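Narrative of accomplishments. A recurring question from our advisory board has been how the design workflow behaves on a single, concrete structure rather than in aggregate. To address it, we present the structure tokens for one chain from the evaluation set, followed by the sequence designed for it. No filtering or post-editing was applied between the two.
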């Protein structure tokens, strides 16, 4: 009998499971689509054949065709959308969606800060998923194989207080195709972040396993020695230096929970106003009350971490066309940036005035 085991996939903020099936030493030859049909619950032959066609099902790490006959000891790896069961347990809610693009296969949404992506403990309603169910009242959205039933249509996710672009799959074929792109690290994702401190290295890469923090289970942590967690890589580049804070852009090579937030904290540059990682207090600056009030005003203008998913690039599942979308910063982010620019400008004026003063002996 085939042995089945699940291991987490790397991409897409860990919404995927990577399933491996190892064929029994006495396995008789049989077509792989029939073999999998007998072993996977609630998965149609058509869904299996689509996955084989796209390259989401490999045998011994090689592409195969639907008529391939499994052999003893074959190792089959797969990433499949599961059947959209039990979506009736979720409540459709009329929550407005800022739709950037939509066709019969997929949708790109600009998620506002504060909107939870999917239901969970303490957030059973008012989420993006509830909004999607209302938008697609007469259509069941696909689920990823191994994905929880409360995440229909989600190929990836972004945190509640992160704004920006998120990709939605509208059918099984699109889900399978896009999942494969995340698995292969061919999805382009760029974020803009405002961080504490002056980032000296203007271009860099942060590498380090990310796993659950040993003491604070609400946080993630970097384990450089690889003793825990999962491989994670973030590339960054400085956009604008603003004295005590820096505006940077980050490109994800992998997609781990809180990846940008924890990698930047590890670098010594915590996200501005990130309360989970201690960025909601003054980490750089002066001791003057006027400065403290200025920072507090900034916190009030943007009461969340300063992180925005600015761009998203992928191959369209049906047309094979390269798609690219970009969205500007939301109002709260822009307002805080402008305040910091004003602060830096006023400091330069003061320093310029001081440099021209003539002092009497």
């Amino acid at each position: 009998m085939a042995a089945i085991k699940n291991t987490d996939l790397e991409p897409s903020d860990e919404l995927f499971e990577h399933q491996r099936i190892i064929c029994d030493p006495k396995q008789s030859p049989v077509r792989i689509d029939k073999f999998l049909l007998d072993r996977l619950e609630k998965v149609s032959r058509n869904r299996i054949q689509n996955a084989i066609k796209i390259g989401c099902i490999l045998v011994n790490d090689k592409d195969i065709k639907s008529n391939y006959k499994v052999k003893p000891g074959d190792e089959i790896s797969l990433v499949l959308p599961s059947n959209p069961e039990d979506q009736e347990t979720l409540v459709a809610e009329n929550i407005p969606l800022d739709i950037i693009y939509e066709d019969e296969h997929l949708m790109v949404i600009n998620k506002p800060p504060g909107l939870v992506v999917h239901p969970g403990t303490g957030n059973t309603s008012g989420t993006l998923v509830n909004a999607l169910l209302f938008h697609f009242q007469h259509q069941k959205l696909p689920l990823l194989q191994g994905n929880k039933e409360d995440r229909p249509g989600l190929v990836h996710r972004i945190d509640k207080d992160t704004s920006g672009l998120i990709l939605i799959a509208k059918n099984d074929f699109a889900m399978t195709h896009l999942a494969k792109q995340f698995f292969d690290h061919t999805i382009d994702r760029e974020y803009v972040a405002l961080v504490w401190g002056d980032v000296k290295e203007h271009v860099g890469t942060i590498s380090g396993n990310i796993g659950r923090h040993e003491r604070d289970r609400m946080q993630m942590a970097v384990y450089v020695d690889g003793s825990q967690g999962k491989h994670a890589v973030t590339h960054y580049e400085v956009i604008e230096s603003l004295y005590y804070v820096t505006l940077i852009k980050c490109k994800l090579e992998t997609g781990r929970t809180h990846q940008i937030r924890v990698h930047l904290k590890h670098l010594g540059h915590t996200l501005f106003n990130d309360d989970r990682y201690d960025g909601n207090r003054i980490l750089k600056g002066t001791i003057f009350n006027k400065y403290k009030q200025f920072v507090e005003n900034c916190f009030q203008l943007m009461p969340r971490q300063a992180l925005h998913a600015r761009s998203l690039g992928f191959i369209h599942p049906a047309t094979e066309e390269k798609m690219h979308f970009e969205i500007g910063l939301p109002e709260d982010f822009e307002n805080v940036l402008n305040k910091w620019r004003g602060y830096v400008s006023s400091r330069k004026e003061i320093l310029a005035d001081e440099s021209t003063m003539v002092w009497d002996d």
